[in-house]
Amino acid sequence: MAKPILGYWELRGVAEPIRYLLHYKKIEFEDKRYTADMTGYEGWQKDKFNLGLDFPNLPYYIEGDLKLTHSIAIIRYLGYKHDLTFKNNEQQCRTMMAEQQSVDFRLKLKSFAESDECEEAGKDKFLKCVQPMFEQWEKFLGDRKFMAGDDITYVDFMVYEALDLYRLYHETILEDYPSLKAYFSRMKNLPELQEYFSSSTRKPWPIFPHKAKFGGSGDPPKHLGHDRLFEIQIL
């Protein structure tokens, strides 16, 4: 059987947690990326209605005769298939809440990054605005290893990615949240993810579409290249 195909734009976006999961489970797949230019756009338009997708969109995931679109549907499917989901009712509730909250959490930063307020003058206001969300995550996680409990689930890749995006925006944003900080380190240092992070296939920038004032077409923050040092500091 041919390798699965994950199709998305050439950026992290909503596909990066799916990439994390696939690399974590050591699943060989084709990471098909459409560049954010006319060539990439034309390539996607050519493929869009010729792949047999029920709801043509990016990202898409093709595994044999199975063809999925929408990031949540894809990562849920992979979580269920590869035993990265909840084990009981409590974990189910935690997983579902963390899934939805991580979507809102990431969208909060993306919306700000695409707004006219995304300038240095608006940074303090934004960080103050999202502080309650970080406090909620810290309390929700508590002393658990992962979001659902002791075992990693698909939602951890979503939460980890959202936290990393905030860390890229403000390098020390996790300093006041010891549980989240330890969780972030725990996820980041998973051997399977470390292998992905150090590979040539990893594209850490851009994180958002081209129009974003942060994470889009601009230069990456200087601390993007300091990941190894960051890992050592918070272990």
From TrEMBL:
Transmembrane parts of this sequence: none
One Gene Ontology biological process: glutathione metabolic process
EC number: 2.5.1.18
Catalytic activity: RX + glutathione = an S-substituted glutathione + a halide anion + H(+)
InterPro entries reported for this sequence: Glutathione-S-Trfase_C-like, Glutathione-S-Trfase_C_sf, Glutathione_S-Trfase, Glutathione_S-Trfase_N, GST_C, GST_superfamily, Thioredoxin-like_sf
GO molecular function, one term: glutathione transferase activity
Coiled coil: none
Keyword set, alphabetical order: Transferase
Enzyme class: transferase
PROSITE patterns in the record: GST_CTER, GST_NTER
Ranges for domain GST N-terminal: 2-86
Domain GST C-terminal as annotated: residue spans: 88-207
Keyword presence, Transferase: yes
Keyword flag Transferase: yes
Signal peptide range in chain numbering: none
Oligomeric and partner information: Homodimer.
Membership in a protein family: Belongs to the GST superfamily. Mu family. Belongs to the GST superfamily. Pi family.
The protein's role, per its UniProt record: Conjugation of reduced glutathione to a wide number of exogenous and endogenous hydrophobic electrophiles.
Name of the protein this chain belongs to: glutathione transferase
